């Protein structure tokens, strides 16, 4: 079975309308219908909860919308991979290669690499940095055509 890794930024676009939201909804639906494993590191849950709180704090979402959004995101058929020694060591190496002081983004990268999966992100700078390192499996959601959900 094929797999893809998605970052928490994409999830936010399912709750709050972003420029990539519609294209990502179509892409996610296609993956689910096609039986593609949609995966994320365990960190994903904490990051989406933090994003909901931040949007609530900024008054971009109401309290009720933040709680409903978190419930919606937790119900998605996403396979969570817990932190384990191999993934954490790989994340440290990726953080080093990317010149990052924190290893949050690198968790997603390490998981995608270990699953031999594509990584999809709403973080263009991360994807650009990965592609500069030869990671052709890293994709920026902004490269999707809004109407079709396919690469443009």
Give your account of this protein's structure.
With 152 residues, this protein is of the alpha/beta class. It has 7 helices and 5 strands; from the N terminus they run βααβααβααβαβ. Strands 3-2-1-4-5 form a 5-stranded parallel beta sheet, with helices on both faces. Helix 1 (8-15) crosses helix 3 (43-57), helix 3 (43-57) packs antiparallel against helix 4 and helix 5 packs across helix 6. The longest helix has 15 residues, at 43-57. The chain is globular, with a radius of gyration of 15 Å. The model has no long low-confidence stretch (mean pLDDT 93).
Topology:
Blueprint: E1 3-6, H1 8-15, H2 21-33, E2 37-41, H3 43-57, H4 63-74, E3 78-81, H5 85-98, H6 104-115, E4 118-121, H7 124-132, E5 138-140
Parallel strand pairs: 1-2, 1-4, 2-3, 4-5
Helix pairs in contact: 1-3, 3-4, 5-6
List the keywords.
152 residues, alpha/beta, five-stranded parallel β-sheet, 55% helix, 13% strand
Helix/strand order, N-terminal first: EHHEHHEHHEHE
Largest sheet: 5 strands, parallel
Mean pLDDT: 93
Helix content: 40-55%
Low-confidence stretches: none
Label the structural class.
alpha/beta
- Radius of gyration from the CA trace? 15 Å
Q: How many strands in all? A: 5
Question: Taking strands numbered 1, 2, ... along the chain, how are they ordered across the largest sheet?
Answer: 3-2-1-4-5
Oligomer: single chain
Name the overall outline: globular
Distance between the termini: 25 Å
Strand content: 5-15%
Count up the helices: 7
